[in-house]
Amino acid sequence: MAVAAVDPDGEFSRALRQAGLRVTMPRLAVLTWVARHPHSTVDAIAAGVREQFGAVSTQAVYDMLAACAAAGLLRRIEPAGHPARFERRVGDNHHHLVCRQCGRTEDADCAIGMKPCLTPIDDMGFAVDEAEVVFWGACPTCKAAKGSNDGARRDEEVWQ
Fold first, then answer.
1. Residue 86 maps to a domain
2. Which phi and psi (to 5°) does residue 149 adopt?
3. What percent of the chain has pLDDT over 90?
């Protein structure tokens, strides 16, 4: 697979070099997959990279994700009770909406915009540089499915 097919404008190659990482086809494939499929799990990323690139071990994908996250090229999020997910949106103060039923995860911009979005009443001497907020609920698909079950009228009232 040619580099141009994985990184047509060279954005990821430049980002890897600027982060001090070697540019490799598997790393380009991982960054490309995550950019096109934000909030993907390691299993989804590995499967997607294998479809595009061929054989790559799950451990290699874990290693690439860890290196890219440590370099600030990816953000790792870990909603409670769900597998870790990765996204390319880094360097801003956004949060996430997570569906309790299917795990769908979407970005939610911070209402205030500046870091930290939330300030504790007593920071106990910590130098707070980030606040993480996860909004939990039902995505539109799960909400609609829940509403179509028996007792749907009562369920719709609960979800609204």
1. no
2. -80, 170
3. 61
As a dihedral over the C-alpha atoms of residue 139, residue 143, residue 145, residue 147, rounded to 10 degrees, the angle is 180
At residue 104, φ and ψ (nearest 5 deg) are -50, 135
Residue 105 domain-assigned?
Answer: yes
Please name the amino acid found at residue 138. Answer: A
Write the burial class of residue 69 (CB in 10 Å: 0-12 exposed, 13-18 middle, 19+ buried): middle
* Residue 84, in any domain of the structure: no
* 17 and 54 both lie in a single domain: yes
Condensed to tens digits (0 to 9), the pLDDT of residues 2-52 reads 555 677 679 999 999 999 999 998 999 999 999 999 999 999 999 999 988
Q: Cβ atoms within 10 A of the Cβ of 40, count?
A: 22
Residue 65: give the domain boundaries. Answer: 3-77
Give the tokens for residue 124. 């106990």
Residues near 131 by Cβ (< 8 Å), separated by ≥ 6? 93, 115, 116, 117, 118, 119
Do 72 and 7 belong together in one domain?
yes
Question: Which residues are registered as beta bridge partners of 107?
Answer: 96
**Helix H segments across the chain?**
3-6, 11-18, 25-36, 42-53, 58-70, 140-147, 152-159
